[in-house]
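Work Package 4 report. The design task specified in the project plan requires that, given a folded chain encoded as structure tokens, an amino acid be chosen for each position. We show below one input record used in the internal validation round.
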């Protein structure tokens, strides 16, 4: 990302402002609590709309390392923190590849319900496995290996923005099958 003289007064870097538009759609982040120490407490203190994508026993046992959905507010400090550099264990930095960003006209509950469908998958031997689709590297790999119909189902009606392993930002939109 090139140096931006208005950064960090902007909520998001200028290179992403056209993609992450808060004017037309809701902007959500699916944040991996396994990569951000104390994320559930941080989200609770933020008072932003948020929720764990795991329910029941899974949330009780794994909530501190689970995926969390949060609706971002362009004027909130937490939103800005997601786009600032930082590598300590509690940093919310994009550099940790801890989040996928989604744009949608859907409300929080509809987005959460859609994403929860993909937190688990059944292996060929019948075991239930956790699917870390919300990890940007895993998400990119899934796009490469899944059949188009499954990609469309996972992707849903969202525009998804994530940081790639090579440090560039990518944006994908739903493609009808």
């Amino acid at each position: 990302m090139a140096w931006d003289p208005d950064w960090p007064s902007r909520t998001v870097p200028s290179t992403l402002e056209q993609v992450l538009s808060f004017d037309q759609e809701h902007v959500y982040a699916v944040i991996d609590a396994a990569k951000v120490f104390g994320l559930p407490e941080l989200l609770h203190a933020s008072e932003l709309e948020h929720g764990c994508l795991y329910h029941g026993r899974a949330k009780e046992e794994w909530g501190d390392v689970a995926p969390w959905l949060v609706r971002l507010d362009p004027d909130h400090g937490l939103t800005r923190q997601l786009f600032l550099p930082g590598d300590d264990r509690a940093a919310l930095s994009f550099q940790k590849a801890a989040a996928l960003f989604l744009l949608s006209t859907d409300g929080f509950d509809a987005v959460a319900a859609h994403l929860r469908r993909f937190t688990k998958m059944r292996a060929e031997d019948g075991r239930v496995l956790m699917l870390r689709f919300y990890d940007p590297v895993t998400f990119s790999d899934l796009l490469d290996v899944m059949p188009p119909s499954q990609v469309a189902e996972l992707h849903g009606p969202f525009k998804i923005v994530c940081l790639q392993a090579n440090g560039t930002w990518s944006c994908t939109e739903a493609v009808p099958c």
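The helical segments are 14-17, 39-46, 56-62, 77-82, 108-116, 136-145, 148-155. Validation will be extended to a larger panel in the next phase.
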